[in-house]
Amino acid sequence: MAARCRSVTGMRGIAAVPSYVVMQPTTLCNLDCAYCYLPHRAADRRMPVPVAEAVAAAVTPWAARGRFSVVWHGGEPLAAGREHLAALIAAFPAGVEHHVQTNATLIDDAWCAFFAAHGVRVSVSVDGPAARNGDRVTRAGRPAYDRIVRGVAALRRHGLPFSALAVVSRPTPGLATELYDYFLDLGCDVLGLNIEETEGVNTRSNAHDAAAVTAFWAELVAAWRRAPRVHLREVEWSLRYAAAVLAGAEGDLLPRQLDPIPTIGYDGSVTVLSPELAGFTDARYGDFSSGNVLATPLAEILAGAAGTGWVGEFLTGVEACRSSCPYFGFCGGGHAANRYFEQGRFDGTETEHCRNSKIRLLEGVLEHARDHESPAD
Ligand code: SF4
């Protein structure tokens, strides 16, 4: 299935207009998860309102053309407090969709009322049942699970729909089924599963046995097919790709250009393509930022982003993927931060991350299809 990638036309250069922006209302997180990539999560550096106003000035014409999202990320975005988050949100025009990615530990009735009042869509980070959350701990090192499920219970009590995002540190037999059943019960309507990444200040290895990772994804598809009541992000991507291949349209599936996905740091600095690079510096690449919205309009920063040293190197890597990797039509060339943190540069190709989350994902879906092929086919 995964072939003919030279004919894939998308992902050439960086688009001038993003489909969403990521905002860091505070660097602080009230948890201290073992696999977290964030370098400054113990410090409470809050985004001043003028930063949000500067971003909103760029977003207003983009949002007028169609759907546009602002994703409040962290740190833990709720650690900024309701009053401050409300002041930041107020900078944006009506019609912009707001999302928060949260560890849920601070969610209570008052936060639920806030989400409802501001139309904020919630995504909760939780790794499955209590025993699977050993890495999610408070600053005092105590398990955070009970506080996470209290927050989720508040969302359910208020009838607020939510997504869930889980980190899988070690794919083992039986885990995919256990996780899928857990999230069915939890009541999320969308689920994303991330195999843990070696990224930022998390230096734990993400190299796994290939067959184990493929089997994990195949088992997940089987669990989902038994009760497909949750939108399962990775499986839906794979099925969309498979359908495009069968229709002979796999060359057209990827966007024409890379979405710049600007991450706006608390101080207004803009890092494109990979939120995980924000806050880091490197002797060769500097601080990875393409500018600051307090000094330069965001649209202008994005128009010049391809000229940022490391971004040009990454685009060379995307072309190397296009010419060498049979999975390019599905993947689109990988994630900048994974290349940097695994390989120390941006123009390489295959990473452990893309093996775990793209190559073996697609192989797992195919393995499931082969295992369930009817003998008559
Ligand atoms: S990042 Fe990995 S899977 Fe994606 S196109 Fe490049 S080599 Fe292929």
Description of the molecule:
This is Radical SAM/SPASM domain-containing protein. Keywords: Iron, Iron-sulfur, Metal-binding, S-adenosyl-L-methionine. The structure is a single chain. This protein has twelve helices and ten strands. It is an alpha/beta fold and 377 residues long. Helix 1 crosses helix 2 and helix 5 runs parallel beside helix 6. The chain is globular and about 55 Å long. The model has no long low-confidence stretch (mean pLDDT 93). Iron/sulfur cluster binds next to helix 10 and helix 12.
Give the number of DSSP strands. 10
Largest sheet geometry: 10 strands, mixed
Provide the gyration radius in Å: 20 Å
Strand content: 5-15%
Order of helices and strands: EHEHEHEHEHEHEHEEEHHHHH
Shape type? globular
Structural class: alpha/beta
| Residue-averaged pLDDT | 93
Helix content, binned percent: 25-40%
Uncertain residue ranges: none
**Chain oligomer state:** single chain
Distance between the termini: 17 Å
Number of helices: 12
Q: Which ligands appear in the coordinates?
A: iron/sulfur cluster
Question: How is the largest sheet built, in terms of strand order?
Answer: 7-6-5-4-3-2-1-8-9-10
GO molecular function, one term: metal ion binding
InterPro entries: Aldolase_TIM, Elp3/MiaA/NifB-like_rSAM, rSAM, rSAM_sf, Sulphatase_maturase_rSAM
Protein name: Radical SAM/SPASM domain-containing protein
Keywords: Iron, Iron-sulfur, Metal-binding, S-adenosyl-L-methionine
